Amino acid sequence: MKTHLFLACSLVIALIACSSNSNDPEDIMDPIEEEDKVEPFELSDLDSNLPSFVSLDDTTPDGMEWVKVEAMSDEFEFWDDDKWFNSFWNYGNTPVWMREDNSFVEDGKLCIKATLHDHPVNWFQTARVHSKTQISYPMYTECSMKTSNISAFNTFWLNNGDIDNRDEIDIVENNANPTPECSDQSTKPGDFPWTPWDFPTQMNSQYFIAKSGITERHEDNFDTRMLSDANPNKGKTWDETYHIVGAWWKDARTVQFYLNGEEAGTVSTNQNFTRELELIFDLWTSEECYLGGLPQKEELSDDSKNTMRVDWVRTWKLESK
Predict the structure, then answer these.
(1) Residue 138, SS3?
(2) Which among 39, 65, 106, 168 is annotated as catalytic?
(3) What's the rounded mean pLDDT across residues 309-313?
C-alpha cells in the first residue's frame, strides 16, 4: 500500500512544493516585524533538551510541557536497528535505485549517499530511511541537516498511508545545487511557474491529506533569506552549513514549521489529519527542470558532494504537566 503511494505521488510532491513564482524573498514570506526582532544568537546556544524555538520564543502552551520521544530521537553515534529501517521502492520515471548500503552512520552523522549504479536506467543509487515508531499530534520534531551538493532533493518528512488514503507532512525538500541549465533564469519564459534559481535557499514545506482518492494540499515556501538578521544562518544555502529544520504538529489541522529556531510558515488544513506518521529521510533526483535536473554522473563519485548528512533528530510530545 505504502509503495503504491510513494511511486505515484512523490514526483508530484516536489513539483508542487517548488511552485513559488518569485525570486524575491519578500514575496516568499513577510519579513519579521521590528517589534518581534530576535537578539543575535548562535545555534549551539539553543537548548538541546527542548525544541529549538523554545530558546528564542517560548510559545509552549500554559500547563503543557515537552516530553522527549526517545524512539524518534537520535544523536547518530551508531546505526540503531531498533529505531530505523530502509525501504526500497524507487521513484517512477527517474534514475533512482534505492539500496540499504547507501545509508549509514559515520562520524556521528546519518549519511544518505548517492553513488553510481552500473545500470542504463537506474544509475542513481541512493537510500531512504524511516523511523520504526509512528506519532501523532500534538508533537514537534526537528533535525540538523546539511544537504548534498549535487542536483538532488534532500528530504525530511512524515507520512503514512497509500495513494488514495494518506496523511503527509513535508518539512523540507531541498535541492541545493540545481543544474546550470535549470537555474538559468534568462532562458525561462516570464510565466515559468517554478524557480530553480531559488532552490539553494528554499525550504519547500507542505502537507497532503488524501481520502477516498481526493487529495488536499497546501505549501509554505520559506527561505533562509527570510530569517532575522540575528540568525547566524540567514541567507546560507542548505549545502553550506547545517540547518535546524522542524515542524510543530499542533492539532488535527495545523502545522507550524521552524528553521534555525525561528517560525518558518504555517499550513492549515480543511479536513483533519487522522493517522500516526513516521519520520522519513531520503535523497533522490529527476531530469525535469522544475525539479532541478540531473547531476553529472561523475559527481556521484565525489564524496565531498554526493552525501546528505543529518547530525541529529529530536522529537517531543506535548503533554499536560
Answers:
(1) coil
(2) 168
(3) 98
How is domain 2-22+52-320 classified at the architecture level of CATH? Sandwich (2.60)
Indicate if 240 belongs to the active site: no
Our answer to whether residue 288 is catalytic in this structure is no
Distances (CA, A) of 223 to 2, 54, 127, 139, 288: 30, 21, 26, 23, 22
Indicate the SS3 state at residue 134: strand
pLDDT of residue 36: 58
Indicate if the pLDDT at residue 52 is higher than 70: yes
Alpha-helical runs (H) found in the chain: 2-17, 25-28, 52-56, 180-183
| pLDDT for the residue 220 | 83
Residues present in the chain in total = 321
**Is-contact 38 28, C-beta < 8 A?**
no
d(CA 206, CA 17): 7
Residue pointed to by grid coordinates 492539532: 251
> What residues does each domain of the chain span?
2-22+52-320
Instruction: Kindly tell me if the per-residue pLDDT of 20 is higher than 50.
Output: no
**219-237 tens-digit pLDDT:** 888 999 999 999 999 999 9
Q: What residues contact 218, with CB distance under 8 A and at least 6 apart?
A: 206, 207, 267, 268, 269
Share of the chain above pLDDT 70, in %: 89
Mean pLDDT calculated for residue range 252-272: 97
User: Which is the catalytic residue, given 173, 219, 262, 263?
Assistant: 173
Q: How far is CA 180 from CA 86, 189, 194, 300, in A?
A: 32, 16, 15, 17
What distance in Å separates the CA atoms of residue 299 and residue 309, rounded to the nearest whole number?
A: 17
Nearest to 84 by CA among 249, 278, 248: 278
